[in-house]
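Supplementary Note 3. Input sequence used for the single-chain structure prediction.
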Amino acid sequence: MTWVGNNLSLMASLFLAHVMLALPAVALSVAVAIPLGWLAHRSPTIRGPLLQVVGLLYAIPSLALFLIVPSLFGLEMRGSANIIVVLAIYGVAILVRTVTDAFDSVPADVLQAADACGYSLWRRFWSVDLPLSLPVTMAGVRVVVVSTISLVTVGSVIGVRSLGTLFTDGFQRGIVAEVVAGLVLTVLLALAMDGLCVLAGHMLTPWTKSSRLPRRVGFIGRSRGALPATPVTTNEEGSVP
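The predicted structure, written as discrete structure tokens, is reproduced below.
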């Protein structure tokens, strides 16, 4: 406890550095995984090979990627950009399959209704496909967020400051309190970010709360630009009164 009390400013700076590495990596993962998942959903021909190749990325050791990525993209090995790109690669490896399943979960009759109304491919993507796939996608994003926050600590091995610095420094100096402080802060950050993801999911998919209300038929989401339909309330037996 003495060490913790004497190093609060250090822990705060490392906590902020950790967040500044994790958030861009998660955002980049989502930005890349959504189009790849949509492409896998749209094209059965490339679906299998794409998912296999992307899935294999997670099997690459992180330390090896920290050396490979700088040589491929011209980044500084001990720079923040290198860590962000490597973490994004792992995030994409996790998220692409989930995004593909999310697009697969959109009801076919909803897509047919959109096509019948004359929606273009891109309008249907933004107004129907993407909004209705969000509940499943957000579940995958939560996994990526927690995984990324954990993997950020590995960057301390190559000298990038984060909460992982408390692990390496505490281990080298034999200060158990420093290691425990890094562990506790990493777990707390993961829990906080996961909670924010849950909140964001509820805000982005308000129609999922309709399960507490009478069931409705012919309703296609409440997202912006969703197809209009006349709601029909059913009774408990599932028939129209």
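The chain has one domain: 10-206. The radius of gyration is 22 Å.
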